[in-house]
Amino acid sequence: MLASSFRDCKAWSAEGLPLSTSSNEACKLYDAILTQYVKWQNDENVGGFEGSISAIQAADPNFVMGHVISTGLELVSTASSARLNQRLAGAVRRTVELADSQALSPRERLHVTAVEHFSHGRFSKACDVWEDILVDHPTDMLALKFSHDGYFYTGAKAQLRDSVARVLPYWKPHMPFFSYLKGMYSFGLMETHFYDQALKVAMEGLAMTPEDAWSVHSVAHVYEMKAEVDKGLKFMESREKDWQASDVLASHNYWHWALYFIEKGQYEAALQIYDSQVIRRCKATGSMLDTVDASSMLCRLEMEGVCVKDRWQEVLQVTRPHTDDHVTLFNDVHFLMASLGAKDGGTSRRLLEGLQELAKEPGDNQQHHLAASLGVSMVEAMTEYDQGNYNRTVELLYPLRYRLVEMGGSDAQGRLHQQHIRKWERDAMRPNSPLTGRLMQRALALHD
């Protein structure tokens, strides 16, 4: 029996977001899935994401928004390519066919259009459609969350911020998820370098909902960007019991915690978090967020001269099956880190060649267009760097250094690539950073 707090058909209609189904069970399950998405948490009471998605399809197999949320979530996870995965491509087609056969609201039709765009790699077009929904329905949390993810994948930082800012005035404190908007808005403020405002807004969210892992995540970013390492360490430790329950985001928050230790040069402490939390969760979930974190953390440690032993082999077991996916360039470069780190030349070559092929005929896939102008050079540069060809690495990367943001991800995630080529600029941006000091010393030693 679903909790009475989940909204039924009548409750959704009362909020101006009617759902085209007569099944109260389906409406409540839609709310249950949406709640887990907002909270970054598998709720065992509803069978987690997997159980509640199975249940919604059983409750009403023709419920279009049930298909939109379940297929949409699989797409935005970027763990599977609709280009290669026939089951996922079929799920998108089924959603479109169901929509064509029913009398839906304009809002629901737009949701179907957005999911279809996203499935074909048209991320920006999908975001435009989600924004169209939010113009008339600013409290549609699914449109807001999906667009938030879409902007993240395209590096559209101002849009990430403003999308939430535009709808905030329409939300009231009594509404479900109200406090979670604070964390989402804070993250956009942080990504556009309004650090003090971002911290203030995230803390407002945490005052209302201490277990909001995304607000915690935003604060972690602020302390890192300001190189306030000790404040960051204290904050993450003091809040651990609150945010670790959000199992979908927990590994990423542990990753942020470990970055502070790397910044301080306390590599054993960072490795302890990696071994006990990051790789353990990565292997258990196979989630792309957990996987890119594992890859980037080992890469950062190696750039600091730390021997990570055979840890790359474990990551490669997770990344190798995704070598041909090419859903996002951001994922691709992290898969490459794993194959280079594990000395698997065949997988590294396959990834590069696959990207080169898609770049020749990208169609309307935004990420494959980007592969032609940015991604292929990025992958080649990483390969050259791995082989010790540093001059060639710089030749390839230097012209791209201001375009790396287009690959998506946060400032904290993207800075790993910048470390290869922007040591001097990094110092100007983060003057208190111990890591910057070490990079500067290394760069100066090369010029002696």
From TrEMBL:
Residue ranges of the TM segments: none
Gene3D superfamilies: Tetratricopeptide repeat domain (1.25.40.10)
Cited InterPro entries: TPR-like_helical_dom_sf, TTC38
Keywords of this entry: Repeat, TPR repeat
Signal peptide residue numbers: none
Top-rank taxon, per record: Eukaryota
Family: Belongs to the TTC38 family.
PANTHER family referenced in this protein's UniProt entry, alphabetically: TETRATRICOPEPTIDE REPEAT PROTEIN 38 (PTHR16263)
Protein's name according to its UniProt entry: Tetratricopeptide repeat protein 38
Species per Swiss-Prot/TrEMBL record: Gasterosteus aculeatus aculeatus (three-spined stickleback)
